[in-house]
Amino acid sequence: MTQQQPMRVGIHDIAIATGHHVLELDDLAETLSVDPAKYHVGIGQDAFSVPAADEDIVTMGAAAAQEIIDRHGAEGIRTVLFATESGVDQSKAAGVFVHGLLGLPQNVRVVELKQACYGGTAAVQLALGIVARAPHERVLVIAADVARYDVDTAAEPTQGAGAAAMLIAADPDLIDLEPAAGVFTADVDDFWRPNDRSTALVDGRLSVSAYVNAFVGAWDDLAGQGGPAYDDIARFVHHQPFTKMAIKAHRKLTQHVGVPFDESDLALGFTYNRQTGNTYTASLWIGLAALLDLDDDLGGERIGLFSYGSGSVGELITGIVRPEYQDHRRQGRVRELLAARVPLTVPEYRELHAAGAATSEDVERPRVTAGPFRFAGVRSGARHYERTAQA
Ligand code: HMG
């Protein structure tokens, strides 16, 4: 009798979207009389994306998902999982708007997931379970966020906006995700956003130590679940609220494991996040997209993916990059999107920030975005979205 090969399930494709505008941190530094090196070196960020008045998590999520549908069609997609910290409605899932904008078939289940920045990884885990039970199905996972803190706070330079869409499938083209996972939960008040606020509250120092503890705790759990040895993981990608955070956490892990640390090993995975800023649920996956696009030596290698969501939940998973991944990546696409962003002055950004809170009052939004979908406004209390001429 021939031995059956275990089924491969994982990431078949990944596409990224971001906001229409960009704020250079050099400009913020000048306004706030801060040494720009604090941003570029101290926190490891260069700029952040800002959504236009007619963009939000739905328009960015739909733009990323459209690229997946354009390449693969909707066949087999019976589930859409939308993860976000910055949901636009307390009841209706953001993914239902995306379902309509993309014209997906009606025989699809759609739901929204929340646990701060961790939600995207929870969605991937749920998707893997669905595909393992029904390998002919594919799951569209969308992670999209607008990271908003109050202006004139220490957290202001760590804002951002972006989305990642992934197709989770059997026999994936990009990455086989492995079954062992390291998980870690601790009830910590490091970052939270009460229902009456559009900006997050954060205890910055506590959030940094909570992230580090979750990473080390998830590592130990992964080891206990039969996960790989440190040296058997060729590259790591982390959730990147600011890229220096990943360096701090990784340094701690290498001390814990007793191996040398070279921070340049993480640099390629920082390339896009240094420009988008924090994208909460999408951050880890935008880091992964950068690694796949920019590293030519990943075929057959194991990578580690660490997700952290304040509050707090951490999870460390691993995957083996497919030998033929270079034929399926979207090299150049994210650089194109980042380069196309329209710069804002600090006063322009602050004006958009002040108007950025979700509202149930009727309003029409100006036509600004160059993306394929736009938030048209609120009519009779309900949000309306539409395709743009670019769609
Ligand atoms: P701060 O008060 O500006 O920090 O807040 P600082 O004064 O400690 O400076 C930061 C670093 O810059 C320090 O380096 C300074 O030495 C350095 P470190 O000691 O940390 O290595 N520095 C300089 N370097 C070079 N040249 C200079 C210079 N000056 C100073 N001239 C903080 C920083 C990150 C706390 C703040 O931005 C913040 O609160 N951000 C938001 C919270 C956050 O991102 N936390 C991360 C972990 S929590 C998480 O990841 C979850 C999250 O994504 C949300 C979710 O789950 O949904 C946030």
Do you know the CATH topology?
Peroxisomal Thiolase, Chain A, domain 1
Please state the second-level CATH architecture.
Answer: 3-Layer(aba) Sandwich
Could you tell me the radius of gyration in angstroms? 20 Å
Portion of residues in helices? 25-40%
| Overall structural domain count | 1
| Cofactors, ions, other ligands | 3-hydroxy-3-methylglutaryl-coenzyme A
Overall shape: it is globular
The average pLDDT score comes to 97
CATH class: Alpha Beta
Strand order of the largest sheet: 5-4-6-7-1-8-13-12-11
What is the H-and-E element order? EEHHEHEHEHEEEEEHEHHHEEHEHEEE
| Biggest sheet record | 9 strands, mixed
Category by helix and strand content: alpha+beta
Q: Specify the number of helices.
A: 11
Task: Report low-confidence residues grouped into runs of 5 or more.
Answer: none
**Percentage of β-strand residues:** 25-35%
Concise structural overview:
The chain contains eleven helices and 17 strands. The protein is an alpha+beta fold.
Structure, explained:
The chain has 391 residues and is an alpha+beta fold. It has a single domain, classed as Thiolase/Chalcone synthase (Peroxisomal Thiolase, Chain A, domain 1). It is built from eleven helices and 17 strands. The radius of gyration is 20 Å and the shape is globular. It starts with 8 loop residues before the first strand and ends with a strand. The structure holds 3-hydroxy-3-methylglutaryl-coenzyme A. 3-hydroxy-3-methylglutaryl-coenzyme A binds next to helix 2, helix 6 and strand 12.
